[in-house]
Amino acid sequence: QKEVEQNSGPLSVPEGAIASLNCTYSDRVSQSFFWYRQYSGKSPELIMSIYSNGDKEDGRFTAQLNKASQYVSLLIRDSQPSDSATYLCAVSGNTGNQFYFGTGTSLTVIP
Amino acid sequence: NAGVTQTPKFQVLKTGQSMTLQCAQDMNHNSMYWYRQDPGMGLRLIYYSASEGTTDKGEVPNGYNVSRLNKREFSLRLESAAPSQTSVYFCASSEALRGGGTDTQYFGPGTRLTVL
């Protein structure tokens, strides 16, 4: 079983809509959770980090963590064409030194 | 600050050749990482260095060696390149320390390696 699983998509949403990206992880002792955005041909860049259960909001982005269900999600409100990218979910292991990435969800925002 | 830098940006090797990928960070981070990214496979950890002077294997270490030269630099060496090592290689760093610090990773621009 993979450590971190994401729906590869592609996910298409119209401009202005809410995009919902989901991720599940297998290691119950994981402590830290991250969402990275990666444009084609570029390196991953951090969007959000979340460490405790509940919601964390930053501008148009909201990360949601449910440790009991081993589930983390990212909501993008008022989606823009510039949000079109691959979104990677990452989870740190119990030592905090190893990170496990999902294969990413490709998002396309249609103008 | 340049953040995380990698050299070279592109490289083509023949099977059996060797090369070293260089990575440096100027953020005074303790931990550094090497990943490879292949289509449909996501980012996979090759090796990491939790602190200066230590290195550990990640998920896919076979065929690679690393050196943590100092706190700033972490190199990845392919001793005898194989076509299966054709990939995009990313170096990353984080502040991470046991018991403290943040473990957000910052990535370099990547090296696109083709092994013929």
Overview of this structure, please?
The complex is a heterodimer of chains A (111) and B (116). Chain A has 111 residues and is an all-beta fold. Chain A contains no helices and eleven strands. The model of chain A has no long low-confidence stretch (mean pLDDT 91). Chain B is mainly beta and 116 residues long. Chain B has no helices and eleven strands. In chain B, a hairpin with a 5-residue loop joins strand 7 (64-68) and strand 8 (74-78). Chain B is globular and about 40 Å long. Chain A binds chain B through residues 8, 32, 34, 42-46, 49, 88, 90, 92, 95-104, and chain B through 31, 33, 35, 40-45, 48, 50, 56, 58, 90, 96, 98, 102-110.
What class, by secondary structure content of chain A?
A: mainly beta
Between the first and last Cα atoms of chain B, what is the distance in angstroms?
A: 36 Å
User: Helix-strand pattern of chain A, N to C?
Assistant: EEEEEEEEEEE
Question: What is the subunit arrangement here?
Answer: heterodimer
Q: Tell me the total number of β-strands of chain B.
A: 11
**Terminal Cα separation of chain A, in Å?**
37 Å
Query: Can you give the helix content of chain B as a percent range?
Result: under 10%
Number of DSSP E strands of chain A: 11
Structural class designation of chain B: mainly beta
Which chains make the largest contact? A-B, 22 and 25 residues
Kindly estimate the percentage of residues of chain B that lie in beta strands according to DSSP: over 45%
Sum up the overall morphology of chain B in one term. globular
Rg of chain A (C-alpha, Å):
13 Å
The percent of residues in helical segments of chain A reads under 10%
Shape of chain A: globular
* Main beta sheet of chain A: 6 strands, mixed
Runs of chain B in which pLDDT lies below 50 for 5 or more consecutive residues are: none
- Count of separate DSSP helical elements of chain B: 0
